Predict the structure.
Amino acid sequence: EPLLYPDLRALINALPRFSVRKVLLTNGTLIRKQDVSMLSHFDEIQFSLDGLKGGHEALRGPWTFDQTVRGIEIVREKGISISIATMVHRHNLKKFDRLAKWIEGLEPTEWNIDVPCATGRLSENPEFWVTPEEGAPFLRYATGGSYHGTDEPFACGYHLCTVTAEGDVLKCGFYTEEPLGSLQDGLEVAWKQSKPLPISQLECDPCPSLSDCKGGCRFRALSLKGKDPVMCALYGHKATQT
C-alpha cells in the first residue's frame, strides 16, 4: 500500500516536475480529508474494490469496505478522476450484477476486472479460486479499457514494466522471481532486456479471436508463448497448457 510509505508526501510533491501521467493505486483505507491537496497531484486514483461488503471483506478483512468507500467519496468530492480494480473470486460472483450497478454510480474512468492466478498468498487460500470457465464471463463487465492492453502486433507487456520497492525492474508485477535488472544499473539497461513478443509467435496463432484477445496475460499462460486459459474461455475456446 503506497500510502504507508513514510516519505510519500515528499515524493508526491516532486511529481509535477515530470511530464508523465500519474496514477495512484491504493486500497483507499488510509485516505483522509486532509490528504486531498496532496493527492490532487495525481491524474487518477485507482481503488481496489473486490466486491460489495461481504465479497470485499472476505478477501481484505473486516471493516475494510466502509473505509475504502470513504476514501473513494473523499477523492470524488475533490473532483479527482477515479478508477476501480476488481479481482474475480469465489465470494463475489453471486453479487456481481449489483456490484456493477453500484460502481456505475461512482462514474469511474475505468473498471478494470481480472481473474487472478493461483500464486502467492492466493495459492494458500483455495476457497477463493475460480476456474477460467467460471471467471472469464465477468471480464465483460469491465469498462473504459481492454482486458490486457497491448500495442499491436505485440503481446501484453510491450508498453510497461514494474519497479519494486527493492529496486528490481520486472516485466510486470507478477514476475517477481524473474527481474530484468536493477535500478542501480539504470532503468534503460533493464528495459532493453525485455524483448517484444509478436502476437504471431504465440501458440494460439492462428485463432479467430486473436485480434480481440491479443493473447491475454503471459504470466497466466504459464509460458512465454502459451495460451491464456481465461481469455480462451472468454472467447469460447479450449486452452491446453503445456
Summary: The CA atoms of residues 174 and 234 lie 21 Å apart. The first strand starts at residue 23 and ends at 26.
